[in-house]
## 1
Amino acid sequence: MMKSEPAPLPAGWHFDNSYARLSETFHFRVNPTPVAEPRLVVFNRPLAQFLGLDPAAFTGPDAAACFTGNQIFPGAEPIAQAYAGHQFGNLTRLGDGRAILLGEHRTPAGQRFDIQLKGAGPTPYSRRGDGRAAIGPMLREHLISEAMHALGIPTTRSLAVASTGEPVFREQPLPGAVLTRVAASHIRVGTFEYFAALGDTDALRVLADHTVRRHFPDRVESENPVLGLLEEVIERQSSLIAHWMRVGFVHGVMNTDNMALSGETIDYGPCAFIDAYDPAAVFSSIDHNGRYAFGQQPRIAAWNLARFAEALLPILHSETDTALAQANAALDSFSGRFQRHWLATLRAKFGLFTAEPEDAALAEDLLRWMHETRADYTHTFRNLKPNTHSEDAGFTAWQQRWTERLARQPQPWPEVSQLMNAHNPAVIPRNHVVEAALAAATTANDLVPLESLLVALATPYDESGKPTELLNPPPLGTPVCRTFCGT
Ligand code: AMP
Ligand code: MG
């Protein structure tokens, strides 16, 4: 009789590694460093299915081995990508110091996704780092990126988190883990800055061509595809930042290496969602000057895009003056683009189908009231109703204006309410709840709170069955967690 074999692990993988086919200027070939004791901690079944993978193939020890890099998926060609980045304003050469790109998976529908192991061991770009990641921050990235996806916000995703059975040494020893990140690509503003800083115009051309083909195929045949690339990236970032502001998301470390040209949110380090509305909210323990505060994000995005435009200058146009004029015109469009997205977002949050010139002022006045009273951003928007009683005279006056504004559009309340509920989440990953779930997972080996949180955050616009601690603002006196960058 034939011995029954465990399901082999093609599992539906279909790698086609276009970035690995670029020349050595762009990457180093490097394999993940095997770990002592791979164990699958979370696995994202819906994402596996979306990718055309067979979830049943990811149950045994082979899966844990693959999700830590002990085994390599068939067809993968592991590389560490070269990039630079302005970190808090200063340009540095970086590269994948602890992430290894396994390759690009093609889904049955023809979409292409990077499959990357984060925390997979040292690479030639590791500098003094160990190439590793601790389980807490990897579970945090898994949770928040999946929450962002469910909120309808472009983001990288997480297919799995697997523990390594090895400690990583930070302020104290912590259990190590690897996250499998799925992204439209990992090409960043900083990828272009790397080659611009080297003065490698040929590499810039190759990279621009690759990026346009991959993310903006409609622009390939256009008169100036590089200008097209710049304009498309500006448009996607202006839309992305409006999305972040819609749900109160603070990225926390918007360095140019953490700005993906695909327009996806990437690199969940010291990120968090605001509870009380405060444009100055900062959660990163190293952001002393509030460079990446909640309300600074549009400005910082524009600053990063200026660095992108600078990197593109040598390939934008053969005449320097023309290149500069084109870059400046594109950059000047950011503010208008962002304002358009933001105003449209605010109108939806306030249930407005029509446009009136005073809408921005109406919105700003409620935001100012929220700031002054430290009102909870999510809770206030989700619970806005005309004609509800409030003790607060300022709020009542505002509510009266809003009610009159609603009366000047034809849509009845049920339609208004539906629009609002589709743009104002009922639940977000509130910091105190996230920290509690991560503490249970990492210190008590109890994954139940994390798993129920993942379920609750998968349908963020629906309050039914959601725990009250997620629906309500944190109890008074809950300390605001600050997240360390050294994740
Ligand atoms: P991040 O703050 O995660 O965006 O990382 C910034 C840079 O530091 C990237 O080039 C990372 O690859 C690198 N890096 C972060 N942590 C480590 C680590 N533990 N070992 C090696 N490189 C790291
Ligand atoms: Mg990064």
## 2
Amino acid sequence: MTRPSVLVARAVFPEVVQRLREHFEVDDNPSDTIFTKSELMARLAGKQGAFTTGSERIDDEVLAACPQLKVVANMAVGYNNFDIAACTARGVLATNTPDVLTETTADFGFALMMATARRMAESEHYLRRGEWTRWAYDMFTGSDVHGATLGILGMGRIGQAIARRGALGFGMKVIYHNRSRLTAEQEQPLAARYVDKATLLREADHLVLVLPYSPQSHHAIGAAELALMKPTATLTNVARGGIVDDAALAVALRERRIAAAGLDVFEGEPAVHPGLLEVPNVVLTPHIASATVATRRRMADLAADNLIAALNGGTPPTPINPQVRAASGGPG
Ligand code: DGY
């Protein structure tokens, strides 16, 4: 019996690729080339499975060109690189990697918010430039995190994990806005208050974005929203590029309409809006919120678990569109 073929679209832990080889014919990409769309379609042709990351867009054109494809397993919790409606319509199971990165991403989101509030990048650059010659009472004065109001837009697993750090570790008041309100049992230990979006923007001292990207959340933070924020407030984005209008943010930072921003994700990344590179009051990191060795390994293992289960007739642990399996009786 011929074994299923899978594409591992980006370089990933060799041990995980080896595990996949125990089950499949594997076409991997150890040189870590980022495929163009036509290269991706050519490499995927005739294969039943794909191990992807956020850099591979799986849309209807790709699916149409690869009719043998049964499962696409994303090594990421976010899956805005997948057209889920198209996957479902074509009977392709899509999976992601939730939960395994929640605490790691929350650690990073909190750290980025603190670095932003306390001007860590800006002051480090000053020191490296050799400009530090004496102490001054107002040198790099920032804003407190402890006791401040933490605003969270998008109160899913990662948002709640950041709220826990703020409420329980730093005595912060937590306000949030989300598509749906948490239960009283979830709100109560954090004393979290559900507010409308305008109130969130007006009241937060430190606003953290943790919502998924979708056409509905495109530019959820633009010039109008930034204008509602306090001039002393900070904005941290560990969600997705495109949720913030980066051009509008660069202007708001330049004109000090808000105090500072911490950004791990960008519109059109890895390109960064030039206006953001010109302003000092922003901490910029290259989409690394989930990047610890242990968590990246857990994400890769979970993506592999999904592929193996889906193509061997098992139950994938974290499907995005489980109705595909239910409807087809299994893609294997
Ligand atoms: C995710 O898992 O969605 C992270 O952004 C890593 O890509």
## 3
Amino acid sequence: MDRTTIDFGIDLGTTNSVISVMNGGEIETIKNGNFEITPSVVYFDKRGVKRVGVSANEMLNRPATATDVQFEFKRVMGQRVEREFKSAGKKFSPEQLSAEVLSELRRAAAARSGSEPVAAVITVPAMFELPQNEATAHAAKLAGFEHSQLLQEPVAAAVAYGFQTNAEKAYWLVYDFGGGTFDASIIAIRDGQLRVIKHAGDNYLGGGDLDWKLVDQCIVPRLSKSFALATLARGLKARDIDNGRMLVLRRHAEQIKKMLSKDETVEYFEENVFVDDDGTQVDIECTITREEFERLAAPAVERSISIVHRLISESGVPKASLDRFLLVGGSTFIPLVRRHTAAIGIPIGMEIDPMTVVSRGAAVFASSQRLPSSRLRPTAVAAGAAVAQLEYESVAKEISPYVGGKIEIDGKAPAAGAKVALQRDDSGWVSGDVAIDPKGMFFTTVQIREQGQSVFALTVRDASGQLVPCTPNSLAITYGLSIASAPLPAGCGIGLADGSAMILIPGGTRLPCPAVVYPAQFVRGLHKGTDEKLRIPVLSGDEPMAEHNLVGTYININGKDISRDIPAGTDVQIEISIDASGVPQIHAFIPLLDETFKPSERIETLFEKPEVMRERVEAIRVRLEEVENLADEADLFALSSEASELASSAVFDEIESRLERWDDGDTDSAGSARNLIVDMAKRASVLAEKVELPTAQAQYKETLDATRKIAA
Ligand code: ADP
Ligand code: MG
């Protein structure tokens, strides 16, 4: 039987990726070779031959090949950066690398089922903003998926659990501690519908950080006693560190970390891992206790817990109303994580393997999503064969849903006496003959199983009782939870000439979001035929100041491309809509030219240069000083000390150390520095709002409304 629903679900993880499929009510995690888990890792050797997954990961075992391995590229998804494979002389964007991982999984699925899936549900972090969603959807295309749908990871995890419960009304917390990121989300389940109500997290907190801590604080100090390892010393500038050997050590550190999840003490020994600066073979020989590791891991784990507490208090859901605390991601195997999460006091859910739960939930969701009709419409129908146009809901909350449709043979309703029949795949239920009326219509109810997906075979017989081949010849209905539309993780808007942001679709809006149109005028004009251009910055974020949002891309209007001059003050209409996956469509219409302009490039995350970021940090400090002074003058002592505490926060040192790495060209650090800066800017704004006179705010809002001018 042909599939009528997407059925394939992929967790495209920072560290590991997994593909699962729904087959007649059973979820199967598809093995790639011997493993359910495919590391999100790509390697090219010097001949340009590629390896993806487990075999690419193995190349991290030797310094000579380790530097030709790329991993954690999801962290820079949607950015205009390239990762280089030096020996092969190749460069790839994060989405091209993600596409390699996706096609590896697609081939694994093909090896299992005989044909490559044409469509998949692919999960993305709840925190992914528009540029990252768009890049993920594009990666799916590059990997050969004709159709893909994005689903937020915590929603997928909750669906995997929801699939097994009959909860009518509940709140769940999904705690996802993976290799590269930490995400926490509160999910509401009501009347069979499931949605994220609030999420929080840190894109730069994950199990990988713990590996590096072990390398820096346990392994290198111990090895340095016996070997010459000057280029592995801590505190070196990123460019002076010997990456190959560091990566090898990190592999061993990860090994040790995983062993410590089972054992209290690990006596690790590995011979000849590489040579030291004097050419001596290095053996790793060290004893590490769980206690020692927990001291290193504690700050990261505590940070995740404090994010959870903040999330709960900001969500407005009382802690007592949270029914389950779902553990997701490989780092939740760590005993310290288990203890800290259990101490929160919400019943823990960990029955489903935390490494595969997201892809399993994605497969359940995929089984409720019908393939686009273009995939179902038969391309060529033999003469005399039947074509069915079916009407049914692919997710049902009751066990006897309706199925109806129209049957045509050679473009006409079948002759009187024709019948259809439906039979459930486990043969536990058959419809008996259902009459087709003179217009070709039929209508019945079917019985579905109370778990998962039920697939029904559809047969058509003519008046003489002869079987007539029919396309499609099956349909699938999933019992249980459906997904209420996902909320948009971050707003989408444009930057105006006065430095403010006009957020046209705020974060939290339910998707899909129909087009929102914003009328504006250009401040500057543009002469036809010149090299000049007008630029409209497209923003991702919800901050009132343009600079606190990400610039996703620009809509560029080039003098060379226009048919007549655009005088200053010319009207322009900006239109933004966002589809169910969170992928935006944006354009600017200029009535004067009767022409529409689209972003010149796909939406991408562009980070400011380190010096610009430093200026922002300085501005935040100045702002905090002003707030402190104002608070003092108004005798608001609590607020004044809050401002002075914030101004001397260790976060500023952290930002500076990340900016130093950004100076060295490390784009991961650019992203994390930006997040911290925006976070501090927000906290400063919140304080300022509490201190400054409400009238000042009102005035600001007024000017904002009057300034419908866009940057040019
Ligand atoms: P991601 O979502 O980033 O792809 P995963 O959920 O696959 O990540 O988790 C990968 C992380 O989990 C890695 O840092 C890995 O070292 C860690 N991990 C896996 N198993 C264990 C274990 N038994 N003990 C501790 N950490 C583990
Ligand atoms: Mg994950």
## 4
Amino acid sequence: MLIDNHNRVINYVRLAVTDRCNLRCNYCMPESGIAFARRSDLLSIPEMQRLCTVLAELGVDKIRITGGEPFVRKGVMKLFGHLSELDSLREISVTSNATLIGPHIGEMQRMGIKCVNISLDAIQPETFAKITRRDEFDKVYGNLMKLIASGIEVRINCVVLGEQNISEIYPMMEFQEKYPVRVRFLEEMPFNGGSRDFKGLEWNHKKILGHIRERYPDFEKVPAPMTATSVNYRIPGHAGSFGIIPAFSRTFCGSCNRLRITATGDLITCLYGKPVANIREPLRQGASTLEMRGILEEILGQRSKDGFEAQERFGPVTGSSMTSIGG
Ligand code: SAM
Ligand code: SF4
């Protein structure tokens, strides 16, 4: 089992399989993209498979595949296949923009993938196009409907971006009223790769909830595991539920159980920090499970207690992009 210097068990890994993406969400990266990693620096699919096997041996029981957009990475289904064969994994999940997931839904179901997070910041096509800088709404909506029909649990991540999409909050609430999904409203974080200025957060979790309360005063809290990042609510009679993720306010750090691994093998112990080691070369040189355990124990032994301490320790976070951090 992996335990950090604050006695938190680390059993959840978010693995980015690419830093590339077919959308250009303006809160994530600039229109022109970022300096994407060289292909030779990316972990190969077999390297990721080995890494996940070792992580599972070390007590990690939940792996989320993310990116960039996971489905632009060739071979990602092979990786899912491998994960589905690791008996000790309790949960395999993915975060996707839903543009390319459609043809893979059946196979994902057969592999036992039970939960998919879809990023959708607008349910009105014009707002979607402005935010993502691409005209892919119909495809995304169609795939969202397919996912819901498949019975896979769907969570929608909606980043609250002030005037860009406040008008989307009530339509999103109407969506969860009608469909069995959990819509999670995220506070915006300053990781947009220089796409635009981040002048502090206006729409924090309290303001988002207050706005929802004005239209929907009768929500009740849903119990959540200690390690959950979202505070969840439901409204009697609604098919779905909603939640709020205080990603910028960072109220959940005390129970953080996660480690991020980027597409190039960087190890990130806190979103508000910087990479603290890289696992690619050890993997390529055939490091044993014990050696990899040593690397992980060393970095987890120096983990910041929360995102504020990490930010202080590692310096300004502006300039980083979620597509390379691995959201
Ligand atoms: N491309 C996939 C997607 O969009 O779902 C996976 C990668 S994306 C970087 C992972 C998550 O990070 C998405 O839910 C996205 O909305 C969120 N994200 C990206 N930039 C963010 C920011 N600046 N603040 C808050 N969330 C952000
Ligand atoms: Fe791509 Fe996801 Fe970033 Fe949007 S949030 S640009 S979909 S990686």
